[in-house]
Amino acid sequence: MILGELEHPIVQAPLAGDPSTPELAAAVCGAGGLGFLAAGYRSATEMRAEIRELRETTPAPFGVNVLVPGSPAVDHDRLAAYLERLQVEANRYGVVVGEARFDDDDWGAKLTVLHRERVPVVSFTFGCPPAETIATLRDTGAEVWVTVTNVAEAHAAAHAGADALVLQGIEAGGHRASFVDREGAPGAGILVLLRSVAAEIDLPLIAAGGLGDGPAIAAVLAAGASAAQLGTAFLRAPEAGTHPAHRAALAEEEPTALTRAFTGRLARGIVNRFVIQHSGAAPIAYPHVHHATAPIRAAARERGDPGGFNLWAGQAHHLAKEMPAAEIVRSLSQDARTALGRTAGRLAAR
Which of 188, 217, 242 is at the close of a domain? Predict the structure, then answer.
């Protein structure tokens, strides 16, 4: 397993969207962690270009994350009402509401590229691909990781042949990785999820969700994780493509909330005007709402208005530091070692 070869048991979360860059992944890999490219919202051609750019920068192993397409049961009346509501936002920014449509995020073409490029690690979010898909990727030499949010999903991924499981706690920023997005779905904190899955499944586990500093990494390693996955911790790194207004918001101690307002799928971000005004009306309709709000979010970013676009962030976002990604990896790892040593000392003293 690649995890056993890492100098530091730190995995950079994929960070789908603008924050994901080959520069960020390369910096994390170069520092001894595992960097990831996010294929979500990229075409297969763009994904291939980023894979090749990353390979030109570092010989180290890396990962690529792919979004598994679903088929949500959309309430079209509620979606239509939400699109009408979004017209006010479109007028605010002088744009038109995007086309609310379904697509599979270039799924088949991306799998073809991943086979040809022989990526070291391929991870999946929003579901578990069929066992045949996992097997064919493994035949190329890839390790296949599946992101899960509960024990049932973990069992399904293990049964399908996953090499490792990424456990996403409710504290995590960005989209919930749940196989099915539904109202009232329970969410476990990362320590509860980690111990629950570890008690039943014998696979390497990568813990994610609100891990903002070294002691938090130490906690999940002590609880049985093979590595910690952090996303928000890297959003303020200069190598990340994070928007300046988003960077500024991360440094503030503002609360986060789960919302479907931006994409139609539950995701955690810093509470802003858009979240407050539209969360209650947003339907389960991904990627329909994602496409509908895309012009609005783009216009808000262009204006530098943090109230009009998604500020994805985990609950511990205020712990993220503005420093190069390599320094973040090394600092987090050292702080984790210190925390583990301090804890061992306390236990020995008793």
Answer: 242
